[in-house]
Design goal:
Helices cover about 5% and strands about 40% of the residues. It is mainly beta. It folds into 2 domains: about 100 residues; about 70 residues, Elongation Factor Tu (Ef-tu), domain 3.
Length: about 200
């Protein structure tokens, strides 16, 4: 189990999450056209901005996590706070097993629809539905990005209301913190998704 970010002590004012696509392009042809191809190796970039570090306890927690994360060599579970696009707090379960790398997933969500643009977590992973279709009863089939990072068993929990993503610090110096008079500061931290199992 990956250690979670200490959100009760170090809560950001703003959260930015971006599903960065991976594209490749060939050379420009004589007619001026170029072909761009997207590959399914999308990865999340999450940024916490405006983390108020104002108490002695918050400074200690910040310093402890800076040491613990070792410049990004240790993964951390990053919650998405203030997330939009959630329909209530109704979670679901997977219908059938799905292999790692699958881009389609069927879920059962009683009492609430699944629509394109929704985010959800399975295990320590974060996903986005970009296309959905009813699959009978309370079941919905979703086209998802990124593709499943790990195989998912039938009946696995699908969380639409408690979102998180396994990440690492984006750079070695993400947790540098400037304290005014050594007592108070505001930090920003950028995370990249950790695709490793």
């Amino acid at each position: 189990m990956t250690e979670p970010w200490p959100i009760s002590y170090l809560r950001p004012r703003n959260v930015t999450r971006h599903l960065a696509p991976r594209t490749t392009a060939g050379t420009v042809s004589a007619s001026g056209f170029t072909q761009r191809v997207s590959v399914p190796a999308h990865a999340w970039i999450i940024t916490y901005e405006g983390i108020l570090v104002a108490s002695e306890e918050q400074i200690r927690v910040w310093d402890a996590y800076e040491a613990f994360l070792e410049g990004g060599s240790v993964p951390i579970l990053v919650p998405l706070v203030n997330e939009v696009g959630i329909v209530g707090t109704v979670n679901g379960t997977t219908v059938g097993a799905s292999a790692a790398g699958a881009a389609l997933l069927t879920v059962n969500r009683v009492g609430a629809a699944v629509v394109a643009g929704m985010h959800f977590s399975i295990g320590e992973r974060l996903y986005r539905a970009f296309g959905t279709s009813p699959a009978g009863g309370d079941n919905y089939t979703m086209s998802i990005r990124p593709p499943l990072r790990e195989a998912v068993a039938a009946g696995a929990a699908v969380l639409f209301s408690t979102l998180h993503c396994k990440c690492r610090l984006a750079t070695d110096d993400e947790m540098m913190l400037k304290l005014e008079a050594g007592r108070m500061g505001t930090g920003n931290v950028r995370f990249f998704e950790d695709p490793n199992p």
